[in-house]
């Protein structure tokens, strides 16, 4: 007696119940695996983008906005701060490294950041092609920028004012590509890096065109930067330096790790909600599988009793139900993993298109294994409940059609 072939036939006996069981189970698996992967990918990518940055100093405003704009480069800045005042902070003995950045322009949606050579060291990046910028109007490209835009050493382009790709006017001064960074899987990959002087010179020329009526003896505008990225020498500085800046200056100090933890708390509510919805669908799918198997046992009671009379024992009949349930669960599991990866892929593509941020599409086997064990446990429980009528089967009564 080939129990496996009989299970395959039973698998097609009630196609509607089988389809509903597989569909609901695969959806719950897709939600569980997908939301876990997205949550861990987002958290990992955000933490990875911090590099060696312990504090961000910028204009007064929202500290979270300051972090999102200056560290993750996915928001608008809170304003500018005087570079001379920022230089005073850079001399603080508790500060190991302070990197000024200034931005406000883009090229095809990729932000152009004016900074110093120390900026790349925050992300442990190195130049794989070309060299670092040595004079104004020279730029070094992040790996993703060079790949997506097809730019090479020696190419020139004109930047656009503002942080969005469309709707801004183009600056006249051409920028020349002199280097390309290695791939870091950090925010640097989607940035165009140049010197501070480039940003100041481009915008100074723009102001000169707008203010041709300016009197000859009037002083030039004070040099400004968007923010200052700071690394501390020791943890004690975290307790004293930010408070001193916020209380004694016109600038604002924000701690990226603290602000991102607040952000996780907000997004965590949505993650938990979707997870509980997935658990609810998982329970419903297991109930559907139980009903499918139970109806199969009840509807084919005569055939099963006949098999018993020809020598099949309860264990063989139970294996038949077990095989059918495991087949449904296995099919649903593979479909669920496939659906989750398709969904995550499209979400990552949307993020890459909107924020120019690429994230590696990785499937953590630990999370998949945990989800698989949970699903298998629920399905085995459903199978055990469906097998119960086989244990109590009265062969003589069923074969004689007695009620």
From TrEMBL:
Topology relative to the membrane: Multi-pass membrane protein
Q: Which UniProt keywords apply?
A: Cell membrane, Membrane, Transmembrane, Transmembrane helix
Domain named MacB-like periplasmic core: which ranges?
18-199
Q: Does the keyword Magnesium apply?
A: no
Annotated ABC3 transporter permease C-terminal domain ranges read: 277-395
GO cellular component labels: plasma membrane
Pfam families, A to Z: FtsX, MacB_PCD
Query: What are the subcellular locations of this protein?
Result: Cell membrane
InterPro entries (UniProt xref): ABC-4/HrtB_transporter, ABC3_permease_C, MacB_PCD
The main location class comes to membrane
Membrane-spanning regions, if any? 16-35, 276-297, 321-348, 368-391
The record's section on PANTHER family has: ABC TRANSPORTER PERMEASE, ABC TRANSPORTER, MEMBRANE PROTEIN
The identity of this protein, by name, is: FtsX-like permease family protein
């Amino acid at each position: 007696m080939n129990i496996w072939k009989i299970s395959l036939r039973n698998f097609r006996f009630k196609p509607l119940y089988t389809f509903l069981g597989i569909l609901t189970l695969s959806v719950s698996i897709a939600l569980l695996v997908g939301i876990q992967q997205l949550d861990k990918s987002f958290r990992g990518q955000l933490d990875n983008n911090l590099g060696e940055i312990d504090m961000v100093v910028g204009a007064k405003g929202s500290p979270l906005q300051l972090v999102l704009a200056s560290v993750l480069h996915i928001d608008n800045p809170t304003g500018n701060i005087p570079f001379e005042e920022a230089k005073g902070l850079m001399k603080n003995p508790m500060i190991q490294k302070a990197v000024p950045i200034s931005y406000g322009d883009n090229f095809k949606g990729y932000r152009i950041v004016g900074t110093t050579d120390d900026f790349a060291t925050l992300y442990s990046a190195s130049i794989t092609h070309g060299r670092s910028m040595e004079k104004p109007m020279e730029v070094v490209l992040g790996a993703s920028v060079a790949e997506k835009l097809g730019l090479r050493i020696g190419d020139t382009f004109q930047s656009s004012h503002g942080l969005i790709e469309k709707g801004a006017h183009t600056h006249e001064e051409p920028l020349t590509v002199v280097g390309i960074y290695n791939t870091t899987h950090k925010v640097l990959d989607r940035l165009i890096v140049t010197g501070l002087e480039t940003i100041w010179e481009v915008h100074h020329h723009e102001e000169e065109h707008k203010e041709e009526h300016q009197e000859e003896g009037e002083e030039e505008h004070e040099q400004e930067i968007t923010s200052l990225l700071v690394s501390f020498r020791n943890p004690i500085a975290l307790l004293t330096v930010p408070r001193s800046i916020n209380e004694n200056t016109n600038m604002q100090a924000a701690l990226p790790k603290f602000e991102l933890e607040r952000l996780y708390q907000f997004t965590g509510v949505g993650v938990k909600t979707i997870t509980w919805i997935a658990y609810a669908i998982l329970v419903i799918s297991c109930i559907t599988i139980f009903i499918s198997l139970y109806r199969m046992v009840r509807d084919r009671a005569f055939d099963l009793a006949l098999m018993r009379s020809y020598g099949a024992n309860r264990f063989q009949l139970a294996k038949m139900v077990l095989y059918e349930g495991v087949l449904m669960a296995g099919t649903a599991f593979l479909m669920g993993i496939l659906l989750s990866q398709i969904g995550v892929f499209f979400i990552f593509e949307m993020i890459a298109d909107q924020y120019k941020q690429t994230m590696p599409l990785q499937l953590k086997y630990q999370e998949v294994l945990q989800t698989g064990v949970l699903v298998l446990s629920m399905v085995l429980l459903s199978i055990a409940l469906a097998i119960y009528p086989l244990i109590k089967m009265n062969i003589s009564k069923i074969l004689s059609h007695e009620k």
